[in-house]
């Protein structure tokens, strides 16, 4: 992607609007992801009559496809430009909606219907990686690489906002009109997004010979590892806080999740310039410290309010970790490889969230639920120390 600064220095509102005008396409993509998320497991298990394994597989196929296709999304964004990649990703979301519709229409043929759902989830996963990576790079091309941290932050806000809106909305649509209506809504959203994206001007790709994937990975794996370690705290809160509350005999786990999500989004909105002012690694180190305090509070919570405060601090701390380290990771490669770098960097979080669940479940089975928050807190502390070490090494080499 181009390294040129934005041609002018717009005010904060105008700058944000220019970013939003592009990352809105990622919002559309993640809305098509969120809408069927809470519906499909129950549909496969209760309506189609398949086991819980198949219900889980239908959902998980999307995440696996996203992880595998991330590097390819970045490579295509570097070669073809981010606009084309975004449009291709949105088309994948559209195809997934059509597959859901065909699955509903072939409900009397359970195997065919299941295969259509699986294919739709795979295509959706590819669409997710293309739309997410492409929209970030498109936004950077629109406002300049100086504001890459802000672009990544807004992209994350729209991502989690779409997921938060999509899940309950999808349940309501399904109750009203079944899977066929839900499929129609998914298809319509993706089609509208494609039609809105096509007329928008593309940004120029950087000239130059791109580095091979192995070289890109060699330059950013340390930053990806830091992200993966921080993502463990995010994973155990999002996945297991309900079980933690049940283990304690408390009510109100939903409030803990609300505080976690609200703090995550709120921190990005309150500190949009922190990365530019203080540097990515410094912001990341502070965020790791806050996240670790939150996880320690959850682990040692003797009352529900302590767990809620811990969830809030964990969400606030993790909020800026991705954009803060991402800024440094992307700038570690030439401009023509920024797409590959961003996609590969993001894949570390995909992988971390994928393995956190089973590993934390294994730890819980032997040591109890609270221990996973202690282990995650210690892992985040290690990430903080490694980040400070990387910042010190960077300062010395400057």
From TrEMBL:
Transmembrane portions of the chain: 20-41, 47-65, 85-105, 152-173, 179-199, 220-246, 252-271, 283-302, 308-330, 342-364, 370-388
Keyword ATP-binding: no
InterPro entries: MFS, MFS_dom, MFS_Exporter, MFS_trans_sf, MFS_YhhS-like
Keyword annotations of the record: Cell inner membrane, Cell membrane, Membrane, Transmembrane, Transmembrane helix, Transport
Recorded topology in the membrane: Multi-pass membrane protein
CDD domains: MFS_YfcJ_like
Subcellular location: Cell inner membrane
The Major facilitator superfamily (MFS) profile domain, residue ranges: 18-395
Keyword presence, GTP-binding: no
Family listed: Belongs to the major facilitator superfamily. YhhS family.
PANTHER family given in the database record: QUINOLENE RESISTANCE PROTEIN NORA
Name of the molecule in the record: Uncharacterized MFS-type transporter AB6T85_16075
The organism of origin for this protein: Erwinia aeris
